[in-house]
Amino acid sequence: MFTDNGQTFGFGKPATEAEIAGWDIAIQPDGTGLPPGSGTVKEGEALFARLGAKCHGAKGEGTASAPALVGGAGTLNTDKPLKTVGSYWPYATTLYDFIHRAMPADRPQSLQPSEVYALCAYLLHLNGIVPEDAVMDAQTLPKVIMPNHAGFTSPDPRPDVFDTLDVTLPATATS
Ligand code: HEM
């Protein structure tokens, strides 16, 4: 593999187009990157019963081995915030990204696009965000408004978080 001064170490090879494509699976919050395909709540229910319930519970309520995917609405500003897909996630498109790349945890990246859309439809329906007859695809999923979509601020206003591009260190950092 070459370094920036042209030196080689005699091992490694350039990544192939196919390898790069395999990594290039990010879905943007606005839905950019979503593939063709579609899925219904009913299809998602059957898939989840077969592939997800064993870890997340029959209705996504969570178990000792995997987090709850449903519930927690209105709990974020209480002593016991329950952060789930329904109560915490700002974008429904991220649900597609996460399920496609990481779930089922015992067989990541084994699902087809229509299966991922169906699971998105089912989990969003279980959280009361889309109706039972919803169909998720590259047009409808980005249009879903998540309950906590306004719960995030950008840029991050916290004093100890500063823009990496324009690094002006807080006074204390230099002493
Ligand atoms: C169709 C099947 C499945 C779906 C749709 C699914 C969906 C999800 C989602 C949306 C999350 C993120 C939860 C969050 O951060 O709020 C998650 C996390 C997780 N799931 Fe699944 N899951 C599935 C199957 C499984 C299976 C079979 C297992 C166990 C083998 C599993 C284990 C986990 C674990 C351990 C996490 C936490 C990961 C972490 O925090 O990094 N899931 N799953």
Largest sheet strand order: 1-2
Span of the ends, CA to CA: 41 Å
Number of domains: 1
How does the overall form come out from the CA principal axes? globular
TL;DR?
This protein has helices at residues 17-23, 41-51, 53-56, 93-102, 113-126, 171-174, and strands spanning 38-40, 135-137. With 175 residues, it is mainly alpha-helical. It has a single domain, classed as Cytochrome Bc1 Complex, Chain D, domain 2 (Orthogonal Bundle).
Which tags fit this structure?
single chain, mainly alpha, Cytochrome Bc1 Complex, Chain D, domain 2, 6 helices, 2 strands, 29% helix, globular, binds protoporphyrin IX containing FE
What does this structure look like?
Helix 4 packs across helix 5 (113-126). The chain contains six helices and two strands, in the order αβααααβα. It has a two-stranded antiparallel sheet with strand order 1-2. It has a single domain (33-175), classed as Cytochrome Bc1 Complex, Chain D, domain 2 (Orthogonal Bundle), CATH 1.10.760. It has helices spanning 17-23, 41-51, 53-56, 93-102, 113-126, 171-174; strands spanning 38-40, 135-137. By secondary structure, the protein is mostly helical. The structure holds protoporphyrin IX containing FE. Protoporphyrin IX containing FE binds next to helix 2, helix 3 and helix 4.
